[in-house]
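thread: overnight batch results

M.L. [08:02]
morning all. the overnight job finished for the chain we discussed friday. pasting input first so we're all looking at the same thing
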Amino acid sequence: MQNLMKRRSFFNFLAVGAFVLLLTGISGCQLLGQGSPLTLLQGDNQTTPAAAMFVPRQAPALVSLLVNPDRLGKQRSLNQLKTNLLASTGLDYQRDLQPWLGNEITLAIASLDLDHNVENGRQPGYLMALSTTDSNKSREFLQALFAKRAIAGTELGTEQYKGVKLIYNSPKPQPDTKELEGLSGAVVGDRFVLFANHPKVLREAINNVQAPDLGLSSSSQYQQALTLLPPRRIGVTFLNLGALSSVLGNQPEVEIFQSQILGLEPTSQGFAAKTTLLTTAATQENAAPAAADLSQPAKALQYIPSTVSLAIAGSELNHLSNTDLNQLWTQISSGILGSESEIVSRLVSQPLSVLQTSWGIDLSRDIFSWVQGEYALGLLPNSEQANPDWVFVAEKSDAATAGILDLDELAKEQGLSISSLNLGEQKISAWTRLTSAPTTSPNLDAASITLTAKVQGVHTTVGNYEILTNSIEAMNAVLKAPQNQSLLDRHEFQESVKPIPQPNKGYLYLDWKASQVILERQLPILKLLEVLGEPFFSRLRSLTVSSYGSEKGLLKGGIFFSLGGEGS
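M.L. [08:03]
and the structure it wrote out:
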């Protein structure tokens, strides 16, 4: 994203624009009593990217917005965004694009390397297709666009290729990335305006239409994936995971999943992004078993306070490493996210760092291995420190009891004291470390010693659950949650899980307002996205992630974005 913002080409502005329009547009409707995102489904709706016919079968990624941007909303911030994105191009959205822009904007990484020259690094080919409702006006737009570039001193070229007129400026390597950066355009028939960063991409796009077997539309896996999407959708993303990893310069540790498709579906309270991952034929027989299903939210959530910023709940962590979900995370984090996976991992694991680093324990071996039933992990904002407090709740079992005793022994080995005390009417155990500091007292001739007990962790048993926290304050909030308000009782959480099919594998729930500061600290680029997508982020309340279907060759899941009124 940062590289896209640095390079001021028209193609990249459109690419950023389409992404941000998708973000801001899903908050563009007036919500809750004034209409809802479901209004986007009224009238004739396109549900399949027609521009897939231009995209090669092996393309790493395709993203399509299947609704006209003007239907996404008329709020001032969205209109200002359209203007700002085109500001450096000398174009005006209402004058130059609105008269002919149709119901589809598709972006694709069309090729891994344009010149197949390993010495200059990968030179990906990018393609954008904009559907048109008036081919004459779109041709006028294309001529005006390149005329402005010519006036600015850019050398242009034109050619006829299989009956289509291509117009372009010669691509030149960028000084910061060495990527070839140019602009090529064409109006194909009376349906699409195509843009690319190299004329070679346009030629191949035209070839794909004239030889359909070459295009993504003819891919059996792509066609299968489309059938797995919700019927009411306004956006589609299709990823070739192996090829996408190559574009990003990463090598996944495992390659169980071959492709992923995602459909964006409006709901009455927000939007649901439903996704399916498809395994390779060679790995279908060796796919790992799925985690246990839950027919309702884990009851362990009754001990997670409603003020939580992030909560994860499910069942059976004891064989986490063997599940398809864990293999998916390993493939995505190493192949797609790369170094960013460390940031995502730290978001969850950093609050537990005292246990990991100070005690020298392994979370999977020393804690997750004995969680055989329900569990819930919650992060609680703490105004007095940078890192949030953490809470871990696990269903009781013989293995869990033995696991807690093992943690007590590990604490002793690390020089910690185990103190038993009452918190209200509840008996708790605290792992503490004594520290000393010399003080000088005016009433003593020699220095005296002040001893301080610093809490490293707290645990207790309540009902059918073992509970671990990092502080007495966090434990106090946990013990009061069932009487005050737990996450399980919170209306916003109940609404956020309604769109998720049951049974499922559990939830990851993120309260946007409560976690925003933490996320910005871990992901600095988020601040840039918040500026670009301000209408979306100002209305975002929460997002919920779940996996809810695993069968031979497939893994299904989704993300639900809960939206509120402006500034809510």
